[in-house]
Amino acid sequence: MNNRSEWMPLAIVIGAMVLLNFLNGDFSNFGEWIMRQLLALPGIVVGLSFHEFGHAIVSDRCGDPTPRSQGRVTLNPAAHIDLVGFICLFFAGFGWGQPVEVDPRYYKHRRIDKFLVDIAGVVMNFLVALAGAVILRFIAHGSSAFFMSATGGAVIEIVQQLILINLVLMIFNLIPVPPLDGFGILTQIFNLERYSWYYKVYSYGFYILLALIFFGVTDKILTPGIQAVYTWMFHTIIY
User: Fold this and answer.
1) Quick check: is 52 catalytic?
2) Which of 135, 146, 184, 217 makes a 20 to 30 Å CA pair with 70?
């Protein structure tokens, strides 16, 4: 992801969507809604932190000193949470962390290393979701009475939210529209920077993404994508 200032129009659009949901009564039972969001909070913090850490650690290993000099090669959420992106994820269901600054001039194999950096965030989200599925497997096959209690039920909900939120972050960031990671991944695979239209698409990509979100196209990508991966995890790992 790119500079935080580029995300401000997106925050405005998402804010309008949240307001519309509020007017439609989606938050009518605010107490129940806030409880669900609090149970999702660990998944949000972990998902954003691991995603940005993935970008930072891979760029660092590829020879770029920028992330380490800025204190980003860490899992400490304080280094990665972007307030606007966090609020959007909390209220609208998708968001972003503080973008990791990288300098590809340090890479020995620029396209390969940049590809690895771009894909690292979504890979981390997949691994976190996978770890959550393994935890659910132990819970599902265990016989502990704890998980039959209200507290145990809350633990199960937190783990489920951990899985779902990381799948949201993974699939949303794989959408091949700048400034998302998916566009960077395709750029390195097909060397798109050699084409004259690349820079024009990149300059307008953010507004294309806004339009896709506003008209619900991203939902049509997220929903089946999340369902497909979660179903696979459910049948191959959890049960």
Assistant:
1) yes
2) 184
- 15 Cβ partners below 8 Å, 6+ apart? 88
| C-alpha distances in Å from residue 50, one per residue of 81, 98, 104, 236 | 10, 12, 21, 24
At 175, is the secondary structure helix, strand, or coil? coil
In order along its 239 residues, the chain shows pLDDT tens digits of: 445 555 666 666 667 667 766 766 666 777 887 888 899 999 999 999 999 999 999 999 999 999 999 999 999 999 999 887 788 777 776 677 899 999 999 999 999 999 999 999 999 999 999 999 999 998 888 767 777 788 888 999 999 999 999 999 999 999 999 989 999 999 999 999 999 999 999 999 888 988 898 888 998 999 999 999 999 999 999 88
Peptide bond into 179 cis (omega under 30): yes
Catalytic residue among 6, 32, 52, 193: 52
